[in-house]
Design brief:
By secondary structure, the protein is mainly α. The protein is built from eleven helices and no strands.
């Protein structure tokens, strides 16, 4: 397993697409981090922090998603497509050891990407005068985002083990969007916005068939900073009071984390079965 993980890490370090994605992500985050110091209109550090937190979340999430696709659709498929898997499996390496080694390498790469993006985000927030809020929320938000992408990556690895990787990526993208749609609809049901029967009951059932996205406390922290900076309104144009936290999802609890872990184990088992049944 260690040997498989080591050579997989070496292979991914030489992959130009992944290196290019990380380079572009870092460059874009740096540009966005410097922008509030140059562009007029951001008078205080808390206003700059609100802009950065609101922007970085989408940018980092997008690049983690693209990186997840780049990793998931190639990390096993390249071995199978090139015939390298034949030389691997003639050695005293079982399919289980191969699967675990590949999964470990994938997790390490995602963790490294998250660490780089997290340190860069925190550094730019400090440069912009970000004080008086929870940096732990920033870190846990990126960890939660990486955990959510890991589910997609394992799914892509399993699909790419039994079909063409481009087809696997298309199917994975559709499934990922379906997962997100179900979670969004469930949030509407939970907030009593969507109450039509029997759709509410159907959505509640579907919700337990898809992975639950992990959510940190950062959305609440962003609203709190927005209120402190005066950038988040508390009343409507008609003068009615509104609750800015009403549309913000609650942070994930231990139950959500356990459900995510169980879902990862199930997908990991499917990945192993796909690799085991593949004729090479």
């Amino acid at each position: 397993m260690t040997a498989v993980a080591r050579y997989t890490l070496l292979e991914m370090s030489r992959r130009r697409l992944l290196v290019a994605l990380v380079t572009v992500a870092v460059a874009l985050i740096v540009v966005l981090g410097i922008a509030p110091l140059i562009v007029p209109g951001f008078r205080t550090g808390i206003q700059r922090s609100y802009f950065l937190l609101s922007t970085f979340n989408g940018v980092v999430g997008f690049f983690l998603l693209i990186s997840g696709f780049a990793i998931g659709m190639t990390v096993i498929y390249n071995d199978l497509d090139s015939g390298a898997a034949v030389g691997i499996f003639v050695k005293p390496i079982s399919r289980l050891q191969y699967t675990v080694g590949k999964s470990a390498a994938t997790l390490i790469v995602l963790a490294l990407l998250t660490a780089v993006l997290t340190l860069l985000t925190v550094a730019l927030l400090l440069i912009n005068g970000g004080t008086g809020y929870d940096y732990g929320a920033v870190v846990t938000n990126l960890l939660a985002g990486t955990a959510n992408i890991l589910v997609l990556v394992v799914l892509l690895m399993a699909l790419a083990s039994v079909m063409n990787n481009v087809v696997a990526a298309i199917i994975g993208f559709v499934v990922y969007e379906v997962f997100g749609a179900v979670s969004t609809l469930h949030a509407l049901v939970s907030n009593h916005t969507l109450t039509a029967s029997p759709w509410a009951q159907i959505i509640n059932v579907l919700y337990w068939l898809v992975p639950h996205s992990l959510i940190s406390s950062l959305p609440h922290e962003v609203v709190r900073i927005g209120l402190a900076s005066g950038l988040v309104p508390t009343t409507t144009r008609e003068g009615r009071a509104i609750n800015p936290y009403a549309s913000v999802p609650a942070p994930s609890g231990i139950g959500d984390i356990l459900f995510w872990a169980t879902y990862c184990l199930v997908l990991g088992a499917l990945l192993y079965l796909a690799v085991r049944r593949r004729q090479v």
